[in-house]
Design a protein that fits this description.
Elements: H1 3-13, H2 18-21, E1 27-31, H3 37-51, E2 66-67, E3 80-83, H4 89-92, H5 96-99, E4 104-109, H6 112-123, H7 131-135, H8 148-164, E5 169-173, H9 174-179, H10 181-191, H11 198-207, H12 210-214, H13 239-252
Length: 264
C-alpha cells in the first residue's frame, strides 16, 4: 500500500470541510480533470441563459452563469457551481443528511486512463518529464494540476456517494455525454430541476461545438480548453506504464467504476 496515497487522504481530504459548510447553491458539478468539464459547463450555461433570458458570456471560462464554490452566480436561474473537489470522510457521514440541506451533486467522470493521458498532453508541453515520469509522480509539480492519485481519491469518494445517495448525487460519464449529448444533457438539466424543450437542447449543443467554443477561448491563457480529438488516446502508455497503472489501481481503488481498465 502507498503511504503517499494515505498521506494525501489524511492531510488533503480529511481536513477538507468546505463542501460541508458551503451548501448555499442549488447544484454542484464535481468533475475529474480532463473529463469534459468546460463542455458540460458551457452546455448548461447556454440552457440556463436561454431559459432565463440571460446574456451569453463571451469567454468559455466565465463564472457568470455556472460559477465556482467561491463565485456563486447571482442570476434568477438555478445557481450551479463547478469544482474538482474531493471531500473528506466527514462529508460522507449519513447523519448530516438528516439535519442539513444539500445541493444536488452531478459527478462527471471519464475513463481514468484517458483522463490521465489527456492531462499530460495538455500540461506537459513545458515539462521536462516524460509521460512515464508524470505517471509515477508523487508530490507537487508546477507543470501539472493532478496526478494518478488524485483520480483514485476522487473515484473512491464520489462513486460510493453516487451509489448510496442517488437522489442527491448523480453520476455522468464523459463517454455518454459524447455518444448521446442531447439525451445526457436532458437528464442533467432534469436533475438540476429544469425542463428545457428539445429546441433549447439542440441550440445549446450547436453553440457548444468545438469550433464555436474555440472562438470564445481566452487568448491570454497559456493552456487552451478546446483540443482536437485523438484517434488512439492510450497509445502513449508503454507496456511498463500499463502495468504500473493497473497495479496502482488494483491496490488503491476501492470503488467500482464503469470502465474495464484491463481492456486496452
Amino acid at each position: 500500500m502507498s503511504f503517499y496515497y494515505y498521506q494525501k487522504r489524511l492531510l488533503r481530504d480529511f481536513t477538507n470541510l468546505s463542501m460541508l459548510f458551503r451548501r448555499n447553491y442549488d447544484g454542484h458539478i464535481v468533475s475529474m480533470h480532463q473529463a469534459g468539464t468546460h463542455w458540460l459547463r458551457n452546455l448548461l450555461t447556454h440552457v440556463i441563459a436561454r431559459e432565463y433570458q440571460l446574456p451569453i458570456p463571451d469567454n468559455i471560462r466565465s463564472n457568470a452563469i455556472v460559477g465556482g464554490p467561491n463565485k456563486i452566480p447571482a442570476h434568477a436561474g438555478p445557481r450551479i457551481v463547478q469544482s474538482h473537489k474531493i471531500p473528506g470522510p466527514l462529508f460522507s457521514l449519513p447523519v448530516w443528511r438528516r439535519f442539513l440541506k444539500f445541493p444536488k451533486y452531478l459527478v462527471l467522470i471519464r475513463d481514468p486512463r484517458i483522463a490521465t493521458a489527456s492531462h499530460y498532453k495538455k500540461h506537459g508541453k513545458e515539462s521536462p518529464k516524460s509521460f512515464s515520469e508524470f505517471l509515477r509522480n508523487r508530490g507537487g509539480d508546477e507543470h501539472f494540476m493532478k496526478d494518478i492519485w488524485d483520480d483514485i481519491r476522487f473515484l473512491n469518494v464520489w462513486m460510493p456517494l453516487a451509489r448510496d445517495w442517488p437522489e442527491q448525487v448523480r453520476l455522468v460519464r464523459y463517454e455518454d455525454l459524447r455518444n448521446d449529448t442531447a439525451g445526457t444533457l436532458k437528464d442533467v438539466t432534469a436533475f438540476f430541476g429544469m425542463a428545457p424543450d428539445s429546441g433549447t437542447l439542440d441550440w445549446s449543443i450547436t453553440q457548444c461545438s468545438k469550433e464555436t467554443m474555440s472562438n470564445r477561448e481566452d487568448a491570454t491563457r497559456r493552456f487552451k480548453v478546446v483540443r482536437e480529438d485523438e484517434a488512439a488516446p492510450l497509445a502513449i502508455y508503454s507496456a511498463a506504464d500499463k502495468a504500473y497503472f493497473l497495479d496502482t489501481y488494483r491496490r488503491h481503488l476501492k470503488a467500482e467504476i464503469p470502465y474495464n481498465l484491463n481492456q486496452w
